[in-house]
Amino acid sequence: MFFCLTVDMALLILLFLLPSPLHSHPTCDLSKATSLLEVNCENQGLTALPMDLPADTGILHMGKNKLGTFSTVSLVNFTHLTKLDLEECELTSLQTDEELSKLDNLKLSHNKLQSLPSLGRALPALTILDLSFNQLESLSPGVLEGLSQLQELYLQNNNLRSLSPGLLRFTTKLNKLNLANNKLCDLPAGLLDGLEDLDALYLQGNRLHTIPKGFFGTLLLPFVFLHGNIWYCDCDILYLRHWLQQNSHNVYLWNEGENVNSLSPNVASVRCANLGSTPVYSYPGKGCSTSGDRDIDYDDSDNFSDLPVTRAEVKFSTNTKAHTTHGGLLLESPASPDSQTPSYNPTHKPTI
Q1: pTM for the full predicted model
Q2: CATH architecture of 104-287+308-352
Q3: Domain ranges across the chain
Q4: Which one, out of 2, 126, 189, 275, has a CA that is 20 to 30 A from the CA of 120?
């Protein structure tokens, strides 16, 4: 009997020493270079958040795992969390059921999201939102409602075909907007209304053929990217032509791999798809009627008083993987415009 008890005790001790199933995954790396605890659980084959995350986690890297779905409920008890990286997690679903009141930086790039829930109620403190390289085809008008602190929005390399006029009306502090390499055929006239802090706008690599009259309003936009679209030069392009003439120092061509701070203005990169790649800014517009047009005198090349002119020197910051980080989360650069530029050469005006 004594021998049996000894064997049983030995087995119990052995089982106690074996790793728990909850801890069978590799241990996440912990660091505290700042006042926030940073936890790195990248590329560990996880299908859910680790059960043993420290309660005071402030920055969490979960990229390159196989989460599939994600809900804010899973992090509701992590009251110190300010930054969350869910890049390349094969996400097909995002749920915002509970509030993460301090989260200001959320990276969801390189996933498979086709739609988004309303974000503002659950993420009111967001300043940076990266949704690039997903499969979004549309955005509901109120999806950004409540994101009053948002400063940077990255939507490049999705499948967006159109945008609602009031999409950005809740994000009045926005200063970076990246819509490059989508399938946008047109832009709503009031899209940029109220975005007085906007300094970088990326629209390259879409299917745009014109810009609505008054689209830029009186905004001062130091950095604008418009190349790689199918600009159709006729009388409807005159607003854009005059804006380009007056803001030629603010229009750039994106060069993959080039340091963004070394980019030079290139207004000639915006070209007429129907006129042998003639630069839009030099389109003559002969024969275009100006009757009833009170905003722009198309016949007087010196009269552009209604168009904003910008010559401000602004520190160029964009989400480039090689050169720039935002709040500790590394952001991807847009794909090369040369590889994603639509190969259209229309002889007839595009229809929407």
Answers
A1: 0.81
A2: Alpha-Beta Horseshoe (3.80)
A3: 104-287+308-352
A4: 189
